[in-house]
Write a structure and sequence with these properties.
With about 120 residues, this protein is an all-alpha fold. The protein has helices at about 1-30, 35-60, 65-90, 95-115.
Length: about 120
């Protein structure tokens, strides 16, 4: 049960942080502080940074094989995003979204590897 709690805690951290940063970027775009192109690039970059930090957090709590914990987290996040995008928003599957999902999975895997290597004790 503690493993499930760790995953839920990390996923909720990632989702809340992504929602807050997206809201702030949208406000910057609305008040013409940032252009639309810059906002879209920053959203992509911030999501990658946030899922990397989430991978580090799950990797630090892993006993061994941080890459596997990061991979599991990436697959769970990808599945959740897939459900939201394709079932909720009814968007089509394309190469761009597939590459985006692969980047999320690989970033969380790298974060898990980095997290277990930085584990204290």
């Amino acid at each position: 049960m503690t493993r499930l709690y760790q995953y839920l805690k990390t996923i909720s951290y990632i989702i809340v942080t992504v929602l807050i940063t997206t809201f702030l970027l949208t406000l910057f775009n609305y008040y013409d502080i940032l252009t639309n192109n810059i906002v879209s690039y920053l959203k992509f970059l911030l999501v990658i940074i946030i899922v990397f930090i989430g991978g580090i957090k799950i990797g630090k709590k892993a006993q061994k094989k941080g890459w596997l914990e990061g991979l599991k987290l990436g697959l769970i996040l990808t599945f959740l995003i897939f459900l939201f995008s394709y079932l909720g928003l009814k968007t089509n599957i394309n190469l761009k979204s597939f590459i985006y999902y692969l980047i999320i999975i690989s970033t969380t895997t790298l974060g898990g590897m980095f997290g277990i290597s930085k584990k204290e004790g």
